[in-house]
């Protein structure tokens, strides 16, 4: 009887899970007819979400059709609405309202995360984001439409809500991006609003001075210790009562795991991620693995846990897919680990900062050299491998075994 691995999601974790499961199947000489691997997602495409803060976000999509065909991975178009962990099935809604189901022997939940929007008045009506494809494309259209409006303080001002990694990359990209649209002589204002006492709160004391200096160089203003409490058509109001005239607000503060995780009888953290076993199995559901942004997994023995990032999602996915296949093929599963953690933060057209370690973070490269690394990461490393069987399987193996 054919056994079936179903992977929900075609993002970084889902893609690596599928390729890793297919690699182990191939290594053990098992026919795709005997062990079927199916990816379920709206489209056979990877949204390169780490690049959505850049110009032309509509181009940040990589098709997966040929890669799946080259590696004998099936694809089922649709959106998973239900997981029946007791009976081993998932319910899938199609684009035209039709409903279907798939049986699984092992399930990998790789449905990712979405941007978190707190109940701030006006945020859903007037705020933009770069945390999902549709939001980033809508922001890009909005920015280009500004050129059709009369010049004003509000038109020429962008407010970025949140001073974390995404907020910094949005803010440092925005001056040049706006001038390309509105004209090089336009008096641009970019203001980053962070409720906490410092920008880049997770970066630590060593990297922060360099980031702050770069913000000053780009004339990106920062407002600290006062968050956004209201948006309307004329601008934003802060907790301290200050009002900023703007027609563009980009919200970048916070992520939450896919709500599909709530259907599994497992403990979750405050971000909605499932607290998984070392081999990424969902406790209490032995046929289900959670990975990527849906999983909170220990990365080492020092108390560090995976983060909602492409860096962790790729490796988590590679372990989850390998383990799902291993479990069906009678092979031992592997405990996920990811001892190295690096951050390469984009700081505009010609600058970046590369750090290593959890806490404290050590700065290894800055400036043009770090920017080259960032460009390699964004444009090469995180993209799917070539649609060639051996290259794809090698990429999946390296995602699980090669550390930074």
TrEMBL record:
Keywords: FAD, Flavoprotein, NAD, Oxidoreductase
Superkingdom to which the source organism belongs: Bacteria
Positions of the FAD/NAD(P)-binding domain: 4-315
Gene3D superfamilies given in the database record: 3.50.50.100
InterPro entries: FAD/NAD-bd_sf, FAD/NAD-binding_dom, NDH-2
PANTHER family found in the cross-reference section: NADH DEHYDROGENASE, NADH DEHYDROGENASE-LIKE PROTEIN RV1812C
Family: Belongs to the NADH dehydrogenase family.
Stated name of the protein: Pyridine nucleotide-disulfide oxidoreductase
